[in-house]
Amino acid sequence: MEYRNLGRSGLKVSTLCLGTMTFGEADERSFMHKVGCDEATSFAIMDRALEQGINFFDTADVYGQDGLSERVIGRWFADRGRRDDVVLATKFRFRMSPGPNGTGASRRRIVAAVEASLRRLQTDRIDLYQIHMQDSDTPEEEIVRALDDLVRAGKVLYLGASNYAAYRLVDSLWIARSEHRARFVALQAQYSLLVRELEREHVPVCRDFGLGILPWSPLAGGFLSGKYRRDQPPPEGARLERWKERLASADNPRSWAIIDALDAIAAELGSTPATVALAWLIQRPAVTSVIFGARSLEQLGDNLKAAALTLPSAAIARLDEASAFELGYPYDFIGRTQNGRW
Description:
Blueprint: E1 3-5, E2 12-14, E3 16-19, H1 39-51, E4 56-58, H2 68-80, E5 87-92, H3 107-121, E6 126-131, H4 140-152, E7 156-162, H5 166-178, E8 184-190, H6 202-209, E9 212-216, H7 239-242, H8 244-249, H9 253-269, H10 273-282, E10 290-293, H11 297-304, H12 313-322, H13 331-338
Parallel strand pairs: 3-4, 3-10, 4-5, 5-6, 6-7, 7-8, 8-9
Antiparallel strand pairs: 1-2
Helix pairs in contact: 2-3, 4-5, 9-10, 9-12
């Protein structure tokens, strides 16, 4: 397992991060109903992940219902005594209680959210605390100051953002710098061979400002796992069998060209499409660690293989070409001019 600094920080994390959204069996109130795994399986997955060198776990207060994923991890910490072996990341922002202040990123909400997560996780600190999405109703100055207070109090060690527009991310970084506050060291964002729009602005911002990118949904909800084939129904029990709109949006020539390239390269390397897709992300600029989920030890084992796979440059070029997308204005105009065409 390779370990990298998390952005421009001294914290070292494994290049694969265990996403825990599926931990615990959520009831019908949760969007994770019937797609999670039971607590015993969750414990076994965390045990095996640590054994294989993964030291980075990611969760969120909203995963499951009533903080289910955090509570499962907290009970695992209490049972196994492995808290210091894990770089623990969690997130806040989305609704956890009724009323006007049950969601968002006001100072009041941030203080309440971190205390609730600490209780559920049965720990005295969170290694990486991330705002799950920007809050357009709260000034960024208020968010930066509240998060900085948590760092100064020792309840949080590092800060991260998720699902931020690039302009808002730069705004937050500038406020933190000018006011001498703790700043974000990581950006968690959707990124995969299928979803590359992050490369327009976020990747350059993260590279220039020293933020480590933590891709979520690296297999595009399972579409890149090797289970899906052109003109064939999804396999029974697969996640995208339930999320039909998401599967329909991927039914286009570009998506199937990506699948064809993954299949061919996986066959040439004696690997699997999922492993190749994860390895491609690990080798992208500014990526620190790729977040993957697992509902079984078998899924965990398959995904772990990506940490040991270094794709040849020719394979990367083929995947880049198959997954190329329109940058749009002004990026394409800038690119053509910068490359000497004008």
